[in-house]
Amino acid sequence: MLLILGTAAFRLVLAGTTGLGIDESYMVAAGRDLAWGYFDHPPIPWWLSAGAAKLLGTEAPLAVRLPFVALFALTTWLMFRLTSEMFGERAGLWAAVTLNMAPVLGVTTATWVLPDGPLVAALLGFGWAFHRAIRGDSWAAWLAAGLCAALALLSKYTAALTLAGAFVALLTLAPRRLLGPKPWVAGLVALAGFLPVLAWNAANGWASFAFQGARAGVRKLALGAPFATIAGEALFLLPWIWLPLAWLWLRALRNGPKEAGPWLLAWLGFVPITLFVVISAWSPRVLYHWAAPGYLFVFPLLGAWVAANLHRVALRRTLAGTAMFLVGALSLAAVEMNLNLLRLPGDPLRQGLDWVPLRAALAQRGLLSHPVAAPSWSDAGKLDYALGNAPPVYCLNADCRQFAHRPRTAAGLIGQDVLLLAPRQDEARIRASYGPLFQSIEALPPVAFALPGRAEVTMGAYLGRGLRDIPR
After folding, report:
1. 444 has which bridge partners?
2. Residue 223 pLDDT more than 90?
3. What is the mean pLDDT of the segment spanning 402-408?
4. Among 60, 167, 157, residue whose Cα is nearest residue 118
């Protein structure tokens, strides 16, 4: 409980002192319209941010991030319970500790408005219930596993990869369970929970499935890319955490089903860990954090290993040093983001600042009477979050993602004048890309507004007269 409360308190401080990143702003803004499905992901993460904003009456970063911080507190407890049942409470404690030390899980998944937060909580709930179902074959355990599987599938599509590994584990550990109705009923519960997402996709041309499936599309074979992917995953987990995780996972696979607990965990993580490494050989779109749900199930093995080796001075120093490193690095990043003391080249932390002062700057110039459009989904997300949906923000791009599937789309602007705001594009590119969409485009003086610790920020502004068409 001290671990849960202490880490949650630290995350709440971070959540309240740093702005939303690009993906977060996009999810909060585009998720204001509740739906059974969304272009990028299933609905639960969108519902969480929208529900928190509605309940608390604000879209402030702390408010929309609060459900994700709370969910990782639950994730920490579930990691402790699952590991304790397999290897004892001491192992459970250290599994929970090391989980919180892995940045891709303990920082981004645990704090940011992303689908990974509800995903890992639901997957761990599934893993715990599935372990009990295999051992005891009770209806309660099987139904809990089915419900948690449904919640995971409603959070992120990659949950299906863990469920595929679970089926292999069941075949090799307790195949006779498949002769009874319980696992099949659990599967039907999971499928029933996922039906709304299928219905949304069917009504929207299977857009979400097509978008995610295209990420595995063949580009050019690059045999060195899998090694880069492994290195990226190691960096996101911290190399000195990833190395024992990988070793323990391989050892569990080598030892086979005679060690039921490690074998189950190894297969729950197998498909996410291996699939994205393989796909990266021909697809440049693989992101390093996609494999994190696979490594999630190796942390119980790491907890047991740490508990057995805690007498080693080097291990204790590594754990203490990692905790101090993370607290220090994150605190410094938050301070630098807000004060910009170091003036880092390219200002990489500026992405974590919200553009809320932009609204006052537009109001001062009388520009809030026009609907606003941005030339990309990412810029539209930042602008829409900053302006609070008043005026409405649209996306004018062939790749608008969820902005193209909202009840209010750019098609409704035909014939109107539109304020084009271009945070990252110059006038020549705006005219070349969007000139054909309007009767004319008038360049306005750039909009200037202040961000913490920075000189005045300017953003290109253009008035598009008479929208004639939208990108296809």
Report:
1. 461
2. no
3. 89
4. 157
SS3 of residue 419 by DSSP:
strand
CA nearest to 419, candidates 382, 449, 394: 394
How would you class 97 by CB atoms within 10 Å of its CB: exposed for 0-12, middle for 13-18, buried for 19 or more? buried
Q: Determine the Cα–Cα distance for residues 146 and 152; give it in Å rounded to an integer.
A: 10
Whether omega before 391 lies within 30 degrees of 0, making that bond cis, reads: yes
| Count of C-beta atoms within a 10 Å radius of residue 156 | 26
Model pLDDT for residues 422-471, shown as the tens digit of each residue? 988 889 999 999 999 999 999 999 999 999 888 888 999 999 999 998 88
CA distance 62 to 400: 27
The rounded mean pLDDT for the chain is: 95
pTM here is 0.94
What pairing do the DSSP bridges indicate for beta strands 372-374 and 393-395?
Answer: parallel
Q: DSSP class of residue 326?
A: H
Q: What is the DSSP string of 337-359?
A: HHH--S--TT-GGGGGS--THHH
pLDDT in tens, 38-82: 999 999 999 999 999 999 999 999 999 999 999 999 999 999 999
Q: What's phi and psi for 129, nearest 5 deg?
A: -65, -40
Q: Which residues pair with 196 in a beta bridge?
A: none
Query: Is the separation of the CB atoms in 423 and 25 below 8 Å?
Result: no
Q: Which amino acid is at 218?
A: V
The pLDDT of residue 214 is above 90: no
Say if residues 106 and 71 touch (Cβ distance below 8 Å).
Answer: no
Q: Which helix (H) or strand (E) holds 447?
A: strand 438-449
State the alpha helices, DSSP H only, in 238-367: 239-255, 260-279, 292-296, 299-309, 313-339, 357-364
**Distance from C-alpha of 78 to C-alpha of 61, rounded to nearest angstrom:** 26
Long-range contacts of 175-181 (CB under 8 A, 24+ apart): 177/133, 177/134, 177/137, 180/137
- CA angle centred on 153, ends 272 and 200, rounded to 5°: 125
The one-letter amino acid at 430: I
Among 297, 311, 218, 197, residue whose Cα is nearest residue 252? 297
Q: Please give the full DSSP string across 186-241, using - where no structure is assigned.
A: HHHHHHHHHHHHHHHHHHTTTHHHHHHHHTT------TTHHHHHHHHHHHHH-HHH
Count Cα atoms within 13 angstroms, Cβ side, for 238: 19
Q: How far is residue 452's CA from residue 356's CA, in Å, rounded to a whole number?
A: 11
Mean pLDDT, rounded, for 176-191: 97
Helix (H) or strand (E) holding 162: helix 159-173
Instruction: Identify the pLDDT of residue 262.
Output: 98
Q: How many residues are present in the chain? A: 472
